[in-house]
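Researcher: I'm preparing a figure for a lab meeting and need a structural model of a single chain. I don't have an experimental structure, so a prediction will have to do for now. The sequence is pasted below. Please return the structure as tokens so I can convert it later.
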Amino acid sequence: MCHNQNNATTNGRNLFQDVVDVRDFYQTPLGKVTRQLLRARIRGMWPDVRGQSVLGLGFATPYLQPFREQAERVLAIMPAGQGVVHWPRDEPNLTALADETELPLQDYSVDRILMVHGLEGSDHPGDMLREAWRVLAGGGRLLVVVPNRRSLWAQLERTPFGFGQPYSAGQLSRLLRKHSFTPLRTERSLFFLPFRNRSWLRAASGWEAFARHAMPGLAGAVIIEATKQVYGAMPVKRVHRRLPAMMPVPATATRGLPRDRTPD
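Model: Understood. Here is the structure written out token by token.
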């Protein structure tokens, strides 16, 4: 694990946590509370996605389900270095595996991108953001969720927020501007501490509400919404891009674990 932003020793390393470990976390009591609180913050930032296409990048599936009730289309792409699992449970698969710097999507093909457990694990975060810019429609929105580098969450490996390179709000904002996104607003979530005690977890919602105002530095996650800049030149890599069809992964190919363990 490396928490030193832009540390050269991370070059060539895969910082993603294995997809099975991430999925298993969201089945634990701590994971379920994490999903509930962070999902509420994300949904509050994007309350209306009617008629739009929503793409989840990284391991965003625990936070995509509410958008399926409104959006025209919802799909998920998980990075090759992380792995892929079937989602949604007991329904046709909507996930695919791809290099996060070479997405199998056409230019300007999605309206919104939700990036969770993604940017901090990529060894090429700039290229990942360039790809997000490429596939977003003009004026499209990007919502990035990353571990807060100053939080306890980023220091403990008991959650997926303890892997990869965490960011401060300022670092993430500068990275987005560098890659032709305009940050619109910054939110924070996961103010409760990542303890597994059941009594503590039952009190998590109340502590979240209190600490959000009293101790904002405790936030485990930084969330920034940004819009795609459609003016000026975008410094995109010149590559021989192939656009294969989405390759759904059958339920039998989810790292050997039963499909019923996939989070909602």
